[in-house]
Amino acid sequence: MRTLEFHSALAPQIRNFISLRQLSGTDYQSQALLLSYFDRFLVEEKFEASCITPQITDRYLLTLSHLAPRVQSNRFCVVQQLCRYLLRHDPLTYVPEPIRVIASQAAHQPYIYNQREVGALLAAAAELRPPGSLRPLTYRTLLGLLYSTGIRIGEALALNLENFLCAEERLYIVEGKFRKARWVPLSTTTCQALQQYLDRRLRIKPRSPDSPLLLNQRSRRLHHVTVNLTFRQLLRRCAIPHNEHAGPRIHDLRHTFAVHRLLAWYRDGQDVNARLPWLATYLGHVDIHSTQVYLRATPELTEEVARRFHDYYLQQIQTNGGQS
């Protein structure tokens, strides 16, 4: 991540606050980026006061009104954290009230791609320009990896060459959410697709073990913003309805992976409840409660659940009938 620069009257305090959070073991990179937006706002407002006031936080909140509720909450939360830090040194610092927690029904509803849509996205990625460059293969590989493994987009973009162990059929996620590392087993077909990409990727520098696995057109690591813009282009090309705030999002491929994995277990006759902890571990969750957020009742999944219940019901009738 590029080094952030702060230029407001509170820049020294903001830098000290970020350093303190990082020294405590918190990554805080994404939060630091959100603080840079507040710093830029202070510059634009020509804010020169020695402490934060209710008026300045109210005006900042107004500038966030065009954003999705969850984004507003995230951006304002880091400002609250900064204010609590500043309060220790200046008792006149105002600490704003938190934005009311968004009700679950108002939160983003994940979009579960069907098999046809996934295939269309992969095909469209393979047709990206410029033809003959690494870019089409990079995006096809990225989308295929997200769908087949369910890893987070940030985890995929952070992968280095050394993190893919083809012979062992697994990926090493160095730093997932909450800075947790984990191994991700891969299917044989996913390994083959990644190796095919590497055969082409390794013709381009950098090729050191710690260099990015997925490269952009400038031979650098893919950037999250650019990937999202490209993904929206692919959605349009595949005629998948979407908008910037409501989705579908590239992160929904992670949701799709979880639902399709559950569907496959139902179709294979597996004990789904017993396997949910496996899915939680694979996705990098602490427990199955976090995993349950990713599960949605698609028509196919509902049909499989109903079929299993029907078969169980018939079996119970036959068993009880035989005993009588």
Can you give keywords for this protein?
324 residues; hpI Integrase, Chain A; Integrase-like_cat_sf; DNA polymerase, domain 1; DNA binding; mainly alpha; 3-stranded antiparallel beta sheet; 13 helices; DNA-binding
Estimate nothing, just give the exact number of structural domains: 3
- Element order: H for helix, E for strand: HHHHHHHEEEHHHHHH
Helix content: 40-55%
Strand order in the largest sheet: 1-2-3
Query: What's the total number of strands?
Result: 3
Q: The CATH topology of the largest domain, please?
A: hpI Integrase, Chain A
Tell me the name of the CATH homologous superfamily of the largest domain. Answer: Intergrase catalytic core
Categorize the overall geometry: globular
Structural class: mainly alpha
Outline the low-pLDDT stretches. Answer: 102-106
Text of the CATH class of the largest domain: Mainly Alpha
The total of helices stands at 13
Q: First CA to last CA: what distance?
A: 71 Å
The main pleated sheet reads as: 3 strands, antiparallel
Radius of gyration: 24 Å
